[in-house]
Structure formats: C-alpha cells, structure tokens
Specification:
The complex is a heterodimer of chains A (319) and B (270).
Chain A (H helix, E strand, L loop, with lengths): L2 E5 L2 E2 L2 E2 L1 H13 L1 E7 L5 H9 L4 E5 L10 H14 L3 E5 L2 H14 L3 E8 L5 E5 L4 E7 L5 E4 L14 E4 L12 E7 L13 E5 L9 H10 L3 E4 L1 H5 L20 E5 L5 H4 L7 E6 L12 E4 L2 H17 L1
Parallel strand pairs in A: 1-4, 1-6, 4-5, 5-11, 6-10, 7-10, 13-14, 13-15, 15-16, 16-17
Antiparallel strand pairs in A: 2-3, 7-8, 8-9
Helix pairs in contact in A: 3-4, 5-8
Chain B lengths: L11 E6 L2 E3 L21 E3 L1 H17 L1 E8 L4 H11 L3 E5 L9 H12 L6 E5 L10 H9 L2 E12 L2 E8 L2 E8 L2 E5 L11 H7 L4 E4 L12 H4 L2 E8 L7 E4 L4 H11 L4
The structure holds flavin-adenine dinucleotide (2 copies).
Amino acid sequence: MGEVLVLVDHADGVVKKVTTELLTLARVMGEPAAVWVGPGYNDAASATLAEFGAAKVYVAEDPALNDYPVAPTAELLASIVASASPVAVLVASSADGKEAAGRLAVKIDSGVITDAVDIDASMTATQSVFGGSTIVHSRVTSGTPIFTVRTNAVAPVPAPGAATRVDVSVSLTASATKARITGRTVAAKGGRPELAEAAVVVSGGRGVGSADGFDVIEKLADSLGGAVGASRAATDAGWYPHQFQVGQTGKTVSPQLYIANGISGAIQHRAGMQTSKTIVVVNKDAEAPIFELADFGVVGDLFTVVPQLTEQVESRKGA
Amino acid sequence: MRQGDKFWSVAMKIAVCVKQVPDTWAEKRLRADDSTLDREAADGVMNELDEYAVEEALKLVEAHGGEVVVVSMGPDRAGETVRKALSMGADSGIHLVDDSLHGSDALATSYALATVLAGRDFDLIIFGSESTDARMSVVPAMVAERLDLAQLTFAQKVDVTGDTVTIERLADYGFDTVTASLPAVISVVEKINEPRYPSFKGIMAAKKKPVETLSVADAGLDASKIGASAAWSGVADFAARPPKAAGVVVTDDGDGGLKIADFLTNQKFI
Ligand SMILES: Cc1cc2nc3c(=O)[nH]c(=O)nc-3n(C[C@H](O)[C@H](O)[C@H](O)COP(=O)(O)OP(=O)(O)OC[C@H]3O[C@@H](n4cnc5c(N)ncnc54)[C@H](O)[C@@H]3O)c2cc1C
Ligand SMILES: Cc1cc2nc3c(=O)[nH]c(=O)nc-3n(C[C@H](O)[C@H](O)[C@H](O)COP(=O)(O)OP(=O)(O)OC[C@H]3O[C@@H](n4cnc5c(N)ncnc54)[C@H](O)[C@@H]3O)c2cc1C
C-alpha cells in the first residue's frame, strides 16, 4: 500500500483534532505517514498519531522552523515527497495549510484540490462549493495528488499504527527564509474549544449591541460546551476579537450545531457557516435572510430568548 | 529614504492582481458542458478583497511615490474590472486575455500571472487573500513560490520603510509580525483599509489610461501549460445539493428559549 503523507496541524505541542480526521481519511487511500514540522514533538503527540493509524511519523524539529511562515513547510514536504514517493498528500484547509499545499504543488508540479469534504479510495475528492449549493467531484490528473481537507468533514476513527519516528534533517534554503516572523501577538484565549474544530458554535452579531452583551452568548456557548463566534459587524465594532470572526474573511466552520444570534445573514457571513449540520437562529426581524438557513428559528429578542435557553440547557443537562 | 517624503523616497512600482468574479449576491453555478464556472450567468464584478488590495497599493504610492499597475487574467469583460481599478486611481493595466486560458486551474493561473509579472521590476505585488468564487486562497503563495519572492500574506496591516516591508499576518491566535526585504508578494484581508469609490473624475480619467492587452503568445506563455486541457486537476462531475428541508420558525411568546431547548433535546444536542 502506498504512503499517504498527512501534515500534522499542532499548537503548543498538541495534535489538533483535524489531523485525526485526516489520518482517518488517509487510511482509505493507503498507509498514513504523518509529517511533524516544528519543535516540540512529544510522547502524547506520538500517541495520538499512533492511535489514528500513522505508520510512520516524519519529524522535522529545528526551532528555526518557527521563524518563517509557510515556505519551510512546503520545502520539507517536497523533500519528503521526493524520497518517499507517496500516493497523495493531505493538509488541513487552514490558511497556512492551503498556502503550504499551493507552494508544494508548484514545487512538485502536481495538482492541488482545496477544501475537500471527502476523498474516496480512487482519490476522487468531494468539494462543497458556492456556499454549499453545489457538490463537485474532482480529481488531480497530473502528479502526486495534493488535497486540503476541511475541518469536521469526516469523523475521526481510531485504528492503531506504529508511529515509527523517522527524523528529517532540516536545512532551509534562502528561498524558504525570505519572510521572517519577528513577533507573535497572542490574544487572550479562554477555556473554550477552538472555533474551527468545535462541534457547537454560538455566534453573536450586531444585535448583541456591545462587548458586555457577548456575556449572554458566552454563557450559552459554555452551557453547550461550544465555541463563540462573531459576525464582522461585531468584530469591527471591537465587541469581540477578530480571530473569532466567522465568514468569508474569517473562519469557515462546519459544526454539528451553529446558533446565530442577532446576525442578519449577509452572504459573506454565510460563506463561513452555511455547511453547518444544524442551524438555529434567534433574530428579532422575521425578514432577516439568516432564517432561510434555519432548521429552527425564533423571531424574538436575543436578550430574553438566549438566557432562557441557557437556563433550560443547564437544567436539562443536570436532569 | 525617509518614509512619507516623496523627494527622498525611492518611488515604488506596485502590481495589484485583480480577478473578475460573479456578483457576490448572484447565484453561482457550473456549466453543464465543461464544468467551469458559468461566468455569463451573472454580472462580473471585481473580487471584493481585490478592492482592498488596490486601495492598499494606492495608499502606499501616495505615501512613497511611484506607480500602480493592475494585472488581471480573464475573458474580455474582465477588462471592466481593470478599468474599475484604474478609475480608483491605478495608473495602468495589463489584461491577459485568450480563449485558451479558459478552464485554467490554480497551477496554470499562477504560472500565467507569474510569467506576466516577471521581469517588470515590481517592488511589491499585492493580491486579495481569497476570491469569492473558487475561494482557494493559494494563488498569492503560488506566485511567490514561482517568482522566488518573500511571501507576506493575510495582511491586516502593511508598512514599508526603506526597502523593508513588514506586515501583520492574521493567525488563529492573533497575528504574527512578518518582515522581508523588497521585492515581495503581499495578500490583504478586509481589515486593512476602506476601499475608495471611484470618483466621477477618476472614471473619466480611467478611460485614457493605458491598458496592455496580452494574448498567451504575447505573454510568452507555454500553451501546453494553460487552459482546461493542461489542468493538473479537473472536475469529474457535479450536482446541485438537494435543497434543505425548510426549517421551523416560531415567534417568541415568552417561551422562545424553551422551544429551542425542546428542539435541541429532540436532536440530542442536550
Ligand atoms: C470583503 C468583505 C468581507 C466580509 N467578510 C465577512 C466575514 O468574514 N464575516 C461576516 O460576518 N461578515 C463579513 N462581511 C460583512 C457582511 O457583509 C455584513 O456586513 C456582516 O456580516 C453583518 O453583520 P451582522 O449580521 O452582525 O449585522 P447586521 O447585518 O446589522 O445584522 C444585525 C441583525 O441583528 C438583529 N438584531 C438586532 N437586535 C437584536 C436583538 N436584540 N435580538 C435579536 N436580533 C437582533 C437585526 O434584526 C439584524 O438582522 C464582509 C464584508 C465585505 C465587504
Ligand atoms: C468552485 C470552484 C472550485 C475550484 N477548485 C479548484 C481546485 O480545487 N483546484 C484548482 O487547481 N483549481 C480550482 N478551481 C479553479 C480556480 O478557480 C482557478 O484556478 C483560479 O484561478 C484560482 O483560484 P482562486 O480564484 O480561488 O484564487 P485565490 O487564491 O483564492 O485568489 C487570491 C487572489 O489571487 C488573485 N487572482 C486570482 N485569480 C486571478 C486572475 N485570474 N487574475 C488576476 N488575479 C487573480 C486575486 O488577487 C485574488 O484575490 C476551482 C474553480 C471553481 C469555480
């Protein structure tokens, strides 16, 4: 069985859930081989990769890898492709992931398909395009197929692998080090699940009215163990930090449950949440276009509906 | 070179890549014959994020002196999008137009754009961070790779001082400050500025600004690397997703939260 390279998405030494999804998908096509780029590979990470079927883990650990965006990852992937001749390469559909995949495609002269929601054994990818209105099946027709895969597209299923470590030496070229990271600004983060990965996302828009108003949104999110999202109107107003923006220029999310509160449903917002499995809407304007997407909607004031819902969730959970 | 001082700064030569896309609100669909985007079915507009790219280029030239060249690959009517950028204030345009480009994938598009951009001594090449139709977010990185230039993408802020460019790159956790020497490739997000509307004067002036129209042969492109037949990836088939069953919408009578809770309980979310 051919090797399928899976680029590991990790933060603070922890393997992100999307990687376990990619490993699950990779097993359909061949034998998964994970690629860890950056310092901090550790036993827990190795255990996670093994649990989801990585036969090998290529580890490139030079601390310098943290100093340059995207280009070094593409360079390392290209060198592993050259030596391991994999049958496919899978990368998460994050901003960094897509760009690394794009640069890799140029380097190895191979086709790239972005935002796949499924890939079958014949390496035909499924893409959900135009805000989910059209389902496309596409194939890479030249070179080693490269796919970027959306978070939450497949359910991770464990299947043990050896996760045998294979060290990869790093010597970055001048081309990979032209843009240097000189500072990292980390916004305060709470104890909530990561927006892109969360099974439940509770979002607030202009209707929330103020930064303090987000309190009701956060309480509902916490009762459901979900993440908090925001529309651009809310992030632009400074009520909620930009990294929580959902939409065309924010995160694309596809949770099991998306609850939109005080959001009108502009096309740019829909672009980031339309493929959510179940959508609940609270908006005081019955004409708001967001209701077109609703599986269940309430026309009403979010400041009465949402706290009542939170209270119900809390009491029913306890029951 | 002192920033903001036209007499002492070396004038910048900036390219902005703009894509014509179907109107944001239009229903988009694929053509039955060759599975490419039906670009005739809707009005074409400049990709929204590319307006921010044009604006950023204009602002940089206002501060440092220099010129803005807008570059677009697309069918005849993409010429309108080039004119729009000129009416905002760009100085000249390059329109790569050729029937054989139809159906190009991201590899082919980045190859064509990189070939047109190469050898023209641009200090900066500015892109939008994503198109609203295909939404790949890969073309800027691929062009940087092809031209062997620094990649400074997803910028919410751009600063040029001397021959150094520094951006704030959006990230999950906040942002990274990323810096490089010119020349470089940049892509911008919508946080970065507020694009200007073309003025009447700007629209009139745009009519007289030069636009170089290039065919595949003019641009020196290898015909075997472009268009649908050369694509590295292709669509096997497609279908409209079956419409979602209409949901239930109720008006709050003091029990709206309760009703949602019932729905969530039914759906096993609680
Ligand atoms: C290039 C570009 C990129 C963009 N990218 C994004 C993006 O990534 N994400 C994004 O979200 N937007 C994006 N936008 C902006 C988008 O067009 C909309 O402006 C934005 O989504 C509106 O946010 P909103 O729905 O919160 O606000 P509004 O459209 O003002 O809607 C507020 C809603 O709240 C309701 N409301 C008010 N008070 C209450 C209350 N007490 N209870 C219940 N309901 C109430 C109102 O009825 C209304 O429907 C982008 C725009 C551009 C041009
Ligand atoms: C629904 C759909 C899905 C597709 N999926 C794939 C796929 O999986 N793989 C693939 O290889 N191709 C795919 N294509 C083809 C793809 O649209 C083109 O290759 C396109 O040129 C590059 O993708 P993008 O528009 O998403 O670019 P992005 O990378 O999102 O564009 C970023 C920026 O690049 C610049 N830019 C992009 N195109 C041009 C242009 N023509 N002229 C000037 N500047 C430009 C703009 O500044 C833009 O803001 C798809 C097309 C459609 C319609």
